[in-house]
Amino acid sequence: MNRKQYIRALEAGLRFRLPAEEVTEILEEIAERFEDGAAEGATEDVICAELGSPSVAAAEFLQRTAVPGKTDILRRVLPAAISLLITGLFVYWSGNLRYSIGAMRPSAIAFLLPIVPWLILLLTEGKKCVKNLRIGPADRAMALCALLLTGAGIFCVGLINEARRSPDSYDLLYMLLCTALMVGAMAAWAVSVCSHGGKYLLLLPASGAAAAIWAAAESFDFFDAYAFNFMDGDPKAKYYGYAGEYLGAFTRLIFVLSALCLICAVIRRDAFSLPTLSLLLGCCGGMSNVFFYLRRLDPMDMNAPACNISVFIPGIISAAVWLAVTLIIRGRKNSVE
Amino acid sequence: MEKGQMKKGVLEFCVLHVVSKKDMYGYEIMRTVTDVFTDINESTVYAVLRRLHADKYTESYTGETSAGPRRKYYRITPEGKAALENMMSEWQELLSAVEKLLS
Questions:
Q1: Residue B47 and residue A65: Cβ atoms within 8 Å?
Q2: CATH number (domain holding residue B27)
Q3: Exposure of A225 by Cβ count < 10 A (0-12 exposed, 13-18 middle, 19+ buried)?
Q4: Which one is predicted more confidently, A278 or A70?
């Protein structure tokens, strides 16, 4: 193995598990080691042998640079629970812009609610988030792309659903405001994710893509809206309705599956973590909407209690499953140690 | 007990002690330690050095080496000196307790 291969392998072992700046410092130090060794006449493969295998070296750095101390469960669970709720609400309401746009209903104020828990989250973990937020230019570009993708998805959802409710006039400014608020919530989530050593940064574009899938699911309502507004009396209108309903449900299932895949990827690294909980409720938000469609509830009937409660039932079940999985995994880790 | 586990436990103490003697750069520190602990991976020493730095027991600055290239030098901090004293007294207690048991 030569110097380049060693450093590349070491970087692969450390990347996304430590802050980017710290990884850079470690690699610079190792590069200096190679230079000093070469100055004494040692060959690169000898130096590699003396350093030890890259995977062992990475494990040493990870073990010794991890933050020590006990896990304050309550301090970690509370922000995680809040982010769990907000992600689910975000998924749910991104699809339900249609219920409040154009009407001065009290439920319209609900779009502001997502910001409040995120502010609490930033207050409880904000200092650490800002201090640990070290991401490189490539990571920033990825994060920005994901946010733009999510924002575009949310805006399209609102636009299409609003076209259904009020095809002749709709409040673009209000929709832009809702979009901005939700993207702001996503950005706050991204800050908390990035501050945890950046190791979950890859989840950000993946989650953005999942949100876009969700937006696509909602956009299939366009078929239904089109039939409702422009195909009055046409016998083919019902097929448009079916297309909207079933394509929408199918795409929601894809969202659920993609969210589950992300959850599995995260659980393998750390089950008891903020992003895991966020993704879990993103998944349950999708499940709840599938449940909603399966029950064939009238989407226009906001007084139907099940319409509003249904989002929380899968959430409670998912949280219970998450808790059980976490306890089992942590129990196994403790028994191994 | 896993082989080398005992050595790993005292490595932080040894590295901090080496740094307390005089300011050194990473390669110098690593060489000093591995010349004595011949079966320790060099990456372990670097990892210990980073941990001590993160705990603010050492601080770093860039300086010239005798060979020419500029390197990151480490020196012990007041917190590091206090920690070293604690480690030293712990070590003395451990040493005398083990000697008593073995005699």
A1: yes
A2: 1.10.10.10
A3: buried
A4: A278
